Amino acid sequence: MKVLAFDLGASSGRGIIAELKDGKITLNEIHRFANNGVNVRGTLYWDILYLYDQIKQGIVNAKLAGGFDSIGIDTWGVDFGLLDENGDLIGNPVHYRDIRTENIPDELYKIVNKESLYNKTGIQIMNFNTIFQLYYLTKYKSDMLKKADKFLFIPDLLNYFLTGVKKSEYTIASTSQMLNPYERDWDKELLEELSIPTDLLCDILETGSILGKVSEDVCEELGIDSVPVVAVGSHDTASAVISVPTTEKDFVYISCGTWSLFGTELDAPVIKEEGLKSSYTNEGGYGGTIRYLTNIMGLWLIQESRRAWKKQGQDLSFNDLEKAALASEPFKCYIDPDYVDFSRPGNLPKRIQEFCERTNQYVPQTVGEIVRCIYQSLALKYRHAFLNLKKIAEKDFTGIHIVGGGTKDPLLCQLTANACNTMVSAGPIEATALGNIAVQLIAGGEISDLKEAREIIKNSFDIKEYTPSETDVWNKAYEDFKKIL
User: Fold this and answer.
1) How far is CA 285 from CA 55, 161, 233, 265, 358, in A?
2) Which residues are catalytic?
């Protein structure tokens, strides 16, 4: 059995054919494409039709590469498209980094306060969560909602384009802050209290279910036979967690890319005041599990700084940035990676300097000093999350698994081991695609269950170990870091 996985991140997407052979998964990337937000008249959109066209190109490439037996799509969370009564898309989906929801949480809290919202949903409060986006529409774009017949998250929307089936997969729906985490279904009472129309919502589909088959018109256009489309862990982090190569029940992971998703896998939600204060969230995982995690601004800080320097005429590779950081003196200054001004595109190095000045720290001047500040701040934020997780979950975790693109960054992996004073296992790199692939192979009967899938992934790819060092120095750094949080 060959499966075709499409993994769309916030900056790029790719199509990968995978096959299970001799107890190992082999990967063949057959298509890669950029995914950039498009700013039109002050609103930041996703170019969804371009993304769908890239998926179709990937399907053709996969056919030419030998064919495939099923398709799965995963993307980032929270964002969505609206369909009219004819099933046609109403406008391009808006990007979660758009400023439209900047002050919406405070407006929503006048109806449902922050504590009640967290207690009802168990989801980390972030101003771009779907519930805030829809509340914005009810208040300021109600005509758009009146035209809408159905609401679909981005991967559900792409699946609909392929199959004509309108369903919401569980893990992506769980990012919305609109589910009852115990019943794993829409909290319609909450939504009605906020005047968000519930008739827009589609039925929720269990992760690993067959959503449908590629429609006849798509098959005719692309010259392929109809194959099943599997509702994989459609939220990219859900897919990444599926691929964590561990045999332990209690483990900690960092799905490290544009965002750093720091958490563990639980059997049931944990909704406590400490979780709200520490920004921990209860998102859905494969098999009805809970991804208990916190969202930390990740390598976006490096990526966006690099873009800013490039605009200023410094075309630096990621390797150049790492070398510059290593050559700079450590522990001179820190940032809170989740400071709100760092979440928007723009001149991030300047904002980092302004943050350091505002918090009465040394102001980094060079590229190396700024990158060093980012790396050590990220590692220390991981320590902060690690300590909070141990306390809230009441578990004594040992070791951290880093999966995803961040595993290619040895400096960040080593600093994480140092800051958290624990062993770090890094790999696999293609974590999100592998989780997508694993669910398709389970759905197709090639793999029996999640446990076997993780063992196969562990045996298929190199995992690098990092041992902590300089414990006393990092303990002192953490005390300094806490002062700026």
Assistant:
1) 25, 24, 7, 8, 40
2) 236
